[in-house]
Fold this sequence. Notes:
Blueprint: E1 2-3, E2 24-25, H1 27-67, H2 77-112, H3 115-157
Antiparallel strand pairs: 1-2
Amino acid sequence: MEDITTPSEEIKKQDDTKETSRIYLDQQALVHLNETRNWTLFLAIMGFIAIGLLILAGIIVSLVFNTMKTPAMPGFFGVLYPVLFIVLGVLYFFPAYFLMQFSKFSSMTLRERSTELFSKAMKYLKYYYRYTGILVIVVISFYLIFFVVAFFMGNQLMPHHNMY
């Protein structure tokens, strides 16, 4: 088994006194960590590519809307869409960054067998899941608000027929 943490006799919660615990990762756990690192690196790179394509799409859409100004299509679409694409790019940046950092510190952990590096890797993995979880809650909230508003607007717009 590989010891990648600082010595301590039993697992304890960290507190203000900076007490640490000992944890052992066997060879199979290190193999799993390395494979996870490879996949998170792949996903981070794909995320950064997607962000680049998103920003490029925003620029292209802006140029198209600015050249096709018609009374049916107001000019603010040329500004609205790039801003929307940039906001989405910023939202997607953080998960890709957190995965990249996890991969980087995991790689360093495997190479140096360092507790501090492993702790940093896990911190970025925690950030990734926390950010993604909050983002999912926000998106679900927007969907719920949209459906409630659509339901009430639909009831207002639909003619009410008396069945009797």
